[in-house]
Design a protein that fits this description.
By secondary structure, the protein is of the alpha+beta class. The protein has six helices and 15 strands. The protein starts with a strand and ends with a strand.
Length: 401
């Protein structure tokens, strides 16, 4: 997992207030909320020294290895089809007698794919494995607990960090966790659940750990008995997030890609966001995207007349959604982006991107590809919240190739 140090904003005013459902605190004596004031020593997490990459600090994880990974789904919320039930006749054979009563298939019951205690164990296992992989910057270990865009982003980060000869990442883990487990059809895979985590740096025993950032983690399970893997990990730049609707058992309600009644249809959210970032849609740019930071960095440093173009597109991953209070949805999805720089005729580009381009290369054209994970609040259509528009509340992006 790639962690960014995000300064919380206690004055952030979203459409809905932060809701605290099921929580899990590592130490009840530690702070369980954002604090203003001094933050951890700025030697951690270390900034990549080559150039600024937005308003946040890169801590651990990775940049996408290839946009080809974009075709990997991190959560499919499709439902299974119930099997037909036959009317039993004598001798155990189905009866086709005239006037026999038709038995309609009963939809399978929706059940949580994992218990809260099970989800806590998944998070604990993930934290331990993540810190081990970060210390070694091991793609092989990374693949044992991450998948899809998360694996691609974090493996790319290892690649860049190793090229820069930086040391290992410090260990960190959840200070507080809020689990959102949706009811699903038991036979329909992959299963998934989300957790909102307030991370803190691991320090010496007995010292107070201060919050470093807040992020969402989306875990998926590909089939019966399969390991739960991290598939998304967008970071929250503000302290406010939409309130998730929970039932009397503390369970969330999944929002399928086919869901209607939202300001942006759930299944179209990735495409609409991509068009918006290209300047042709209603979703505001959240700021801090790596593709934008790279374009801004290179524009004044390239030969006069260099053509610079950025494009956005849906990454091809499926959408995970949670119903929010008031009828909206919190949607998790991914986009892909590219930055292309073309030298003027008779000139060459010399760019340095650790792990990807060396300044000794003479290039007519240089291209960088990115993945972007988002969590967006999609309000109900036809309401005052809906008119205020869909907005990104968390994101994580990086160079992929």
């Amino acid at each position: 997992m790639c962690v960014h140090n995000v300064r919380p904003d206690d004055d952030y005013e979203g459409d809905e207030e932060l809701y605290n459902p099921i929580t899990y605190e590592r130490d009840r004596d530690e702070p369980a909320a954002w604090h203003r004031g001094d933050w951890p020593d700025e030697s951690w997490p270390p900034r990549l020294p080559v150039r600024p990459r937005g308003r946040r600090w890169l801590v651990s994880g990775a940049i996408l290895v290839a946009v080809a990974v974009a075709g990997t789904s991190f959560a499919l919320l499709s439902g299974g089809t119930p099997a037909r039930q036959a009317v039993a006749g004598s001798g155990g054979r189905s009866s086709a007698r005239a006037g026999a009563k038709t038995v309609r298939p009963v939809p399978p019951a929706l059940t949580p794919p994992i218990s809260v205690s099970g989800a806590r164990a998944v998070l604990a296992s993930y934290t331990a494995a993540n810190n081990t992989a970060n210390a070694r910057m091991s793609d092989a270990l990374l693949a044992t607990y991450e998948t899809g865009t998360s694996y691609a982003l974090d493996a790319g980060s290892y690649r860049q960090r190793e090229a820069m000869r930086l040391g290992a990442y410090p260990a960190y883990g959840p200070l507080q966790s809020r689990f959102y487990i949706p009811r699903e059809q038991a036979a329909s895979y992959p299963h998934w659940f989300a957790v909102q985590v307030t991370n803190a740096i691991f320090t010496e025993p007995g010292t107070t750990r201060q919050p470093a950032n807040v992020e969402y983690l989306v875990f998926t399970q590909s089939g019966p008995g399969a390991r739960w893997l991290d598939a998304a990990e967008p970071y929250v730049p503000h302290g406010g997030t939409p309130a998730i609707t929970l039932d009397s058992a503390g369970l969330a309600t999944a929002v399928a890609p086919s869901a209607t009644g939202l300001a942006v249809p759930a299944g179209q959210i990735a495409t609409v966001t991509a068009r918006s970032l290209d300047g042709h849609g209603p979703v505001p740019d959240p700021g801090g995207l790596t593709v934008s930071a790279e374009a801004a960095y290179w524009r004044p440093r390239l030969p006069k007349g260099t053509a610079i173009a950025t494009t956005q597109a849906a990454a091809g991953t499926a959408v995970c959604g949670l119903r929010t209070q008031g009828g909206g949805a919190l949607l998790f999805y991914a986009d892909a982006a590219s930055l292309t720089m073309t030298a003027p005729r008779g000139r060459a580009l010399h760019i340095a991107v650790p792990g990807f381009y060396d300044s000794d290369q003479s290039l007519a054209t240089a291209s960088l590809r990115f993945l972007e994970q988002f969590a967006a609040y999609d309000p109900p259509a036809g309401t005052s919240a809906g008119r205020s528009g869909t907005r990104v509340v968390a994101e994580y992006s990086g160079i992929t190739s």
